[in-house]
Amino acid sequence: MVREIAIEMRGITKRFPRVVANDNVDFGVYKGEIHALVGENGAGKSTLMKILYGLYQKDSGQIFIRGREMDISSPSVAISQGIGMVHQHFMLIPPLTVAENVVLGQEPRKGKIFNDTKKAIQDVERLSKKYGLKVDAQAKVQDLSVGLEQRVEIIKVLYRGAEILILDEPTAVLTPQEVEELFNIMRSLKEEGKTIIFITHKLKEVMEISDWVTVMRDGKVAGIVETKKTTKEELAKMMVGREVLLRVEKNPPQIRGVVLEVKDLEAVNDRGLSALRGVSFKIRAGEILGIAGVEGNGQTELIEALTGLRRLIRGKVTLWGKDITNASARKILESRIAHIPEDRHKRGLILDYSVENNLILGSHYRPPMTKGPRLNFKKISENALELIKRFDIRPADKEIQVNSLSGGNQQKTIVARELSRHPQLLIASQPTRGVDIGAIEFIHRKILEERDKGEAVLLVSAELSEVMSLSDRILVMYEGKIVGEVEPKKTSESDLGLMMAGAKSSDQVIRQSGDREFPDTPIS
Amino acid sequence: MWQSVFSLVMVTLTIKISIPYILAAIGGTFSERGGVINIGLEGMILNGAFCAVLATWYTGNAWAGVVAAVIGGVLTALIHAVVSIRYKADQIISGVAINLFAIGITKFILKMVFHSSSNSERVVGLPFWKIPVINKVPVIDTIFSTPLILLTLIIIVASHIIIFKTSFGLRLRSCGEHPQAADTLGVKVNLMRYAGVLISGGLAGLGGAWLSLDQHQFTDGMSGGRGFIALAAMIFGKWTPLGATGAALLFGFAEALQIQLQSAGVKIPTQFIQMIPYLLTIIVLTSAIGRAVPPAADGKPYEK
Ligand SMILES: Nc1ncnc2c1ncn2[C@@H]1O[C@H](COP(=O)(O)OP(=O)(O)OP(=O)(O)O)[C@@H](O)[C@H]1O
Ligand SMILES: [Mg+2]
Question: What is the pLDDT of residue B138?
Answer without folding.
Answer: 75
